[in-house]
Amino acid sequence: MNVLNEEFIEELIMNTLYRKKLIVLAIVATFTSQFSFGQVPQSVSKKNQVLSQITIRGEKIAAPNVDGESKTGSASILSDTASLLENIPGMSLYKAGGLSSLPSLHGLADDRLRIQVDGMNLISACANHMNPPLSYIDPSNVGSIQVLNGIAPVSSGGDSIGGTIKVNSSAPVFANEDQGNILKGQAGVFFRSNSHARGANVNANYATPSFSLNYSGAVAKADNYLAAKSFKLNGLSALGSVTSGREVGSSAYQSENHALGFAIRGSDQLLELKLGLQDIPLQGFPNQRMDMTRNRSEQINLHYRQQLEWGNVDARIYHEHTQHRMNFSDDKQYWYGNAPGMPMETAGHNTGAVLKANWVLSERDKLILGSELQRYRMNDWWNASGTGMMMAPNTFINIKDGERNRLALFAEWEAQWSPAWFSQLGVRSERVRMDSGAVAGYNNMAYGDPTSTTSIPGIFNHSDRQRNDNNIDVSAVFRFAPDSNFSVDGGYAYKTRSPNLYERYTWANSNTMVMNMNNWFGDGNGYVGNLQLKPEIAQTLSATIHWQNFVESGIEFKFAPFYTRVRDYIDAVACSSIGKICAARKDGFVNVSLSNQQAELFGIDLSFEKTLAQSRDFGKIHAKGGINYVRGENTQTHTGLYNIMPLNAKFSLQQQIDRWTNTLEWQVVNAKSHVSEIRRELNTSGYALVNLRASYDFQQGRIDFGVENLTNRFYSLPLGGAYLGQGATMGMGVPHGTTVPGVGRSMYVSGTWKF
């Protein structure tokens, strides 16, 4: 691929978005002039949607008519969008800040998943990954979520090995031809007793048959939450701040989200412009040595779709700018000698464009062709603090002028061979180009002269830092559905992911304090990157057997085994194994680097639903359940992979009568003992939780209330990492061996009103 052509395309898009942002309005006007505002077809005009409903689909392949799970009202009691995924088979969550959980699909998480928000491929701009993609959309603004496992179609995004999660805000609302103009919306509030979490949200729409205007806004705030019992000593916190033995330090948060959407449609065209703004003044992290003290994100997202005689064209261009700041919140020690805190700044610029064309070649065949471009720039620097040798007098340059650019071409062929047989074959070619600038420590005496050829920063600065990865993805899936009651999905995928900027370009290995700051795992250890990392390559086999018979027996059952083998899996290793000498430490944690290893993951997902009874007196009673198991192992060291969810199950009994829905839920999690030894990952004990929920629907809204962890059971989060929520987190004051506990008993109530 010609690099000059690639750079020309990147600069063209950047210029388009940056020229005072006025060019965006020009694009809207240009497209608008091409629209025909005549009569809207009946099939298009039925756009009004129930705003409180979220549709979540867990798909194995992109086959037609895949059933989804409808979740009504669940977003009204949540602050963390990732929590909407908890009932998806094979899905678990890395619990971090109250707004920033990381989804894990079949043991693969974070950058190993392709996560799209309204079609934008967002990137975490933080050395601790405190601002993951799903944190950029409030749960109340989510309209649909689509989850595709490791054999996700190549058109759904590359540069990932663990699958794709697509989150979309509510679709534009248009008026019917006989309605004229409409003004509608909803407002909601919620409260949770544990942590005194409270929030409010509003969604308003003004629409005509051809024009739609939407505003969505949400605010949320919470204090530290309490575990079911004491898990630490009282008062061990920051200077001047005291916490009880039950209080989980640095778990408070505050957030504000705004989204403004415009949409115009014609008889066969749709144009959308979405503007987003997020401001998080505080989000504590109980499993990190730092906290988020500011995160501001601005988003521009322009989407165009046109239906043609031979198929359709779908185009998108977007830009997202993040300003991220970390320091110590109230629960963590702020002063170290004469140094007031440790300010850390990150700025990220993420620009992307996607173009897809769908050709209907025949009644049987469909061809999808497309191209994708992503241009990412990031700077990560830490301003001087105090006058001591450790954090002064200069600015610490962690990553300077980091670049990560992706350019991809893909093609997919879908064939409906018969009413029973469907197949899909896809191939994707992707070039990932990465680079970074020269770095420097706080001072030359403690960190080395950055111009020298023998110091740690000097060796990095004199090395060749540009990397070009030519990656290939292949997917082959099928579906056999002889009737509406039975289907078998299966497939194979070959997926590739290049390292992120932090994995390749973090450089400081002689200072424990600095290494602690580069930790996107929540395990309390210190990390340094590796310029020699190669892309991960995963081969996945997966199948799903789906049987249902709602008419006669009211039952549904899914059985889904999977196997993934990863070549060049990026895992933690001893620094000495890759020729680095890292600072020694005596606090129980470790300083490590990263290297390519070999790994495998396998497991099974089981889920069922059964109608037990239905009568006039008791309504409809049905049971639901799911069992998830995944085992991940580094086959080179024969130890466990980090943060693998142990065997777990969830069962519920639900009653629906008149306007009431009542649910009793039982969640069981096995002990975790197969852990990553190099990271000194902590074991956790098994536990069982009981949740009780109820909701009442009425014409103008809905009320939800219930109790989480009804029996006030104490438990440790299997994927919560090490507890670092308070005290001298940058020194020796945080003992190794304490896990992050889960939330104790919490009552909640929320209300949603439509207008």
What's a quick, concise take on this entry?
Helices cover 7% and strands 49% of the residues.
- The residue ranges in which pLDDT falls below 50 over 5 or more consecutive positions are 1-6, 12-53, 59-72
Q: Oligomeric status of the shown chains?
A: single chain
Number of helices: 7
Strand content: over 45%
Distance between the termini: 54 Å
Q: What is the 3D shape?
A: globular
Could you report the average pLDDT, rounded to the nearest whole number? 90
Largest sheet: 22 strands, antiparallel, barrel
The secondary structure category is mainly beta
The number of E-state strands comes to: 35
Fraction of residues in helices? Answer: under 10%
**Cα gyration radius (Å):** 26 Å
Subcellular location: Cell outer membrane
InterPro entries: Beta-barrel_TonB, Beta-barrel_TonB_sf, Plug_dom, Plug_dom_sf, TonB-dep_rcpt-like
Membrane topology: Multi-pass membrane protein
Family: Belongs to the TonB-dependent receptor family.
How do the strands and helices of this protein lay out in sequence?
Blueprint lengths: L2 H16 L3 H12 L8 H4 L7 E7 L9 E4 L18 E4 L7 E4 L2 E2 L4 E4 L2 E2 L20 E7 L15 E6 L12 E11 L4 E11 L3 E12 L30 E13 L3 E15 L7 E18 L2 E17 L7 E2 L2 E2 L3 E17 L4 E18 L13 E21 L4 E15 L8 H4 L8 H6 L5 E17 L2 E12 L3 H5 L6 H6 L8 E2 L8 E14 L5 E20 L16 E25 L3 E16 L4 E2 L7 E10 L2 E10 L17 E12 L2 E8 L37 E9 L1
Parallel strand pairs: 1-8, 6-9, 25-28
Antiparallel strand pairs: 1-2, 3-4, 4-5, 6-7, 8-9, 10-11, 10-35, 11-12, 12-13, 13-14, 14-15, 15-16, 16-19, 17-18, 19-20, 20-21, 21-22, 22-23, 23-24, 24-26, 26-27, 27-28, 28-29, 29-30, 29-31, 31-32, 32-33, 33-34, 34-35
